[in-house]
Design a protein that fits this description.
The chain has 79 residues and is α+β, with helices and mostly antiparallel strands. It has one domain. It has helices at residues 10-17, 20-37, 70-73, and strands spanning 44-49, 57-62.
Amino acid sequence: MARIRVKHHSKGYAELIRDPAIVADLQRRAERIAAAAGGESEGYVAEPSTPTRRRARAAVIALRGDSDNAMIRNLGAGR
């Protein structure tokens, strides 16, 4: 059986995970999760994060606390 060699390009990975299309997709997913959990009326907001040197991120914030695990139950909305 032939050996397969994979050469990783770290610079390419870094560019990919900070790409504007990836940032926009993460924000859309966070907004869908926040909406499924009840939206702003229930105290859930999607907050974008500026891409860091390492990666882009987005967060769903529970403004009133999350005692009923609404975000966990609605993670599927981010798919």
